[in-house]
């Protein structure tokens, strides 16, 4: 009797494992390509900012800056008040971010946990405001600030956004709803009030989403152009986006001035993201935020 040939018992499992590894490798390859395409413009901007003026136009954008030079940044600071624009933007963005964290947390907790008449219609009214384009509100907002004599001041840049946005309230409210209500009920049994629960339970458990909100708010405020362009007219209150726009009109053909300015405006945003990236990833994993 001829013995039957034995096949490996785990051949099917090994084949499935190899297939899964191939799929994972393909996904990582596609993600790497997408990431490279996304960050390539920023990397080329940083690279070109260090190129000498003589080689800036004679080489490709991705050609390494060899030798690298700081003369472009020196020329930028000597010919233009970039430090003032950076300080103005940091003050405005920092104040708006802090205000949104405070007031958005209060509003989100009220919508998520407190029971009061008209809560749902009011919340959905806030959500409906997310669908209104910013350009629609610019003229009414300008007229209001002009009537209050706030044009060309820090207050005109800060007041419209410091008390929170519909998106921020929605984001934090959805996160608050993922926190078990039993924690709050147990705290109330122990005699804790609303403020104590918010301060000692809700906020500590919500650090990831608050870090995400802070990052989004700071980046959006830093990159804002239309409203600062309308609300300010002097260099005393101009932010970095308005300053670079004016710089582009003044030095349109001098890329050795424009590229360092763009790099200087970009670096604080990269630092903010690197500082809070762990919290952002955690909030995405916990809330399913896309």
TrEMBL record:
Any one Gene Ontology cellular component term annotated for this protein: plasma membrane
Compartments it resides in: Cell membrane
Gene3D superfamilies: MetI-like
CDD domains the record matches: TM_PBP2 (cd06261)
UniProt domain ABC transmembrane type-1: residue ranges: 86-276
PROSITE patterns found in the cross-reference section: ABC_TM1
Alphabetized SUPFAM superfamilies for the sequence: MetI-like (SSF161098)
Domain of life (superkingdom): Bacteria
Lipid bilayer topology: Multi-pass membrane protein
One BP annotation, GO: transmembrane transport
Record keywords: Cell membrane, Membrane, Transmembrane, Transmembrane helix, Transport
The keyword Ribonucleoprotein is assigned to this record: no
Annotated transmembrane regions: 27-50, 85-111, 123-148, 154-172, 257-276
Family: Belongs to the binding-protein-dependent transport system permease family.
Protein name as it appears in the record: Carbohydrate ABC transporter permease
């Amino acid at each position: 009797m001829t013995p039957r040939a034995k096949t490996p018992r785990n051949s099917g499992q090994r084949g499935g494992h190899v297939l899964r590894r191939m799929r994972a490798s393909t996904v990582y390859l596609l993600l790497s390509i997408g990431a490279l395409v996304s960050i390539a413009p920023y990397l080329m901007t940083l690279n070109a900012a260090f190129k000498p003026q003589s080689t800036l136009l004679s080489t490709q954008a991705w050609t390494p800056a060899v030798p690298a030079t700081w003369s472009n940044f020196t020329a930028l600071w000597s010919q233009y008040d970039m430090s003032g624009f950076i300080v103005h933007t940091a003050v405005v963005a920092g104040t708006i971010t802090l205000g949104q964290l405070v007031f958005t947390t209060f509003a989100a907790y009220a919508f998520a946990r407190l029971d009061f008449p008209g809560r749902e219609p009011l919340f959905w009214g806030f959500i409906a405001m997310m669908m209104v384009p910013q350009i629609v509100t610019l003229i009414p907002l300008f007229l209001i600030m002009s009537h209050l004599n706030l044009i060309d001041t820090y207050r005109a840049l800060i007041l419209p956004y410091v008390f929170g946005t519909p998106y921020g309230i929605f984001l934090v409210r959805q996160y608050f709803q993922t926190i078990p209500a039993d924690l709050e009920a147990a705290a109330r049994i122990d005699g804790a009030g609303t403020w104590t629960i918010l301060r000692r339970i809700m906020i500590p458990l919500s650090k990831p989403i608050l870090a995400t909100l802070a990052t989004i708010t700071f980046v959006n405020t830093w990159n804002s152009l239309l409203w600062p362009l309308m609300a300010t007219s002097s260099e005393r209150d101009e932010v970095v986006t308005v300053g670079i726009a004016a710089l582009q009109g003044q030095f349109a053909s001098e890329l050795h001035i424009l590229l360092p300015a763009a790099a200087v405006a970009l670096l604080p945003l990269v630092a903010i993201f690197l500082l809070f990236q762990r919290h952002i990833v955690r909030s995405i994993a916990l809330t399913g935020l896309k």
